[in-house]
Structures are given as C-alpha cells and as structure tokens.
C-alpha cells in the first residue's frame, strides 16, 4: 500500500452558502490523499499500474466547477467520483479550503476534511 498526494491545488469557483458568494466567486484550495497499491507501478515503471495524477486533477477540477452551497458537499462529490471511477483506490482523504471566507473578520481560510474508505467487499470486488 502507498499514498499519492496532490497538495496545493487552487481553483476559482462559485461555491458558498450566500447567493452573493455564488455570483462573485472565490479562491479555493484542495489537498488530496489517495491510498492504493503502488508496488506494481514501482516494479514495472508503468503508468497503467498506478493512479494517474492528471486523472485525479481532472476529477477534482470538474467537481470544483459545479457550484455548491457547502464545502462539505464539494468534498463529498469529489470522494464519490474518485471511488466510482478509480476502483484500485482504497481510501481517499480531501481537504477543501475557502480563502478569505466572509465571516466579518480576519480568517485566512475555512477548511473541511472528509475521508472515505472502501469496505472489504468493495475492495475485493475492485
């Protein structure tokens, strides 16, 4: 088992609880951590034996383009997409941050973290 991490992804998106946030947009950050078997790729040096970073980025970017009220919802959608489209992934952890959230005071970012793991039956089928 090993981990692939994409850290510091940045997007401009239109998420937010308030209608105004969904109109003007904001900057968001994403950190993604994937647990999967990396031994075959380490031995073979073949991209087909691992999770392609470009595919991970594309899945995150597509979900970031779809507006949501809550960061929790965005994070959940990303987890679901990764688990649905990448059967070799065993566990995913995601941090989604909103920079300078409108709280009425200084806050560099608000962040949510979600984790999803395949159950044993899913892992054996995948």
TrEMBL record:
Keyword Heme attached: no
Domain Dihydroneopterin aldolase/epimerase: 4-116
Pfam families: FolB (PF02152)
Organism of provenance: Hymenobacter monticola
Protein purpose: Catalyzes the conversion of 7,8-dihydroneopterin to 6-hydroxymethyl-7,8-dihydropterin.
Gene behind this protein: folB
Homology family: Belongs to the DHNA family.
Enzyme Commission numbers on file: 4.1.2.25
Leader peptide range in chain numbering: none
Keywords (A to Z) from UniProt: Folate biosynthesis, Lyase
The protein's name: 7,8-dihydroneopterin aldolase
PANTHER family cross-referenced by the UniProt entry: DIHYDRONEOPTERIN ALDOLASE 1-RELATED
Domain of life according to the entry: Bacteria
Reactions listed under catalytic activity: 7,8-dihydroneopterin = 6-hydroxymethyl-7,8-dihydropterin + glycolaldehyde
A Gene Ontology molecular function term of the record: dihydroneopterin aldolase activity
Top-level class of the enzyme under EC nomenclature: lyase
Pathway connected to this protein: Cofactor biosynthesis; tetrahydrofolate biosynthesis; 2-amino-4-hydroxy-6-hydroxymethyl-7,8-dihydropteridine diphosphate from 7,8-dihydroneopterin triphosphate: step 3/4
């Amino acid at each position: 088992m090993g981990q692939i991490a994409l850290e510091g992804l940045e997007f401009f998106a239109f998420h937010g609880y308030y209608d105004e946030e969904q109109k003007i947009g904001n900057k968001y950050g994403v950190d993604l951590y994937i647990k999967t078997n990396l031994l075959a790729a380490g031995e073979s040096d073949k991209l087909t034996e691992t999770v392609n970073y470009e595919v991970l980025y594309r899945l995150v970017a597509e979900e970031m383009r779809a507006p949501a009220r809550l960061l929790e919802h965005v994070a959940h959608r990303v987890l679901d997409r990764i688990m649905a489209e990448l059967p070799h992934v065993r566990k995913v952890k995601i941090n989604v941050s909103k920079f300078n959230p409108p709280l009425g005071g200084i806050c560099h970012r608000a962040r949510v973290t979600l984790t999803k793991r395949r159950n044993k039956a899913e892992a054996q089928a995948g």
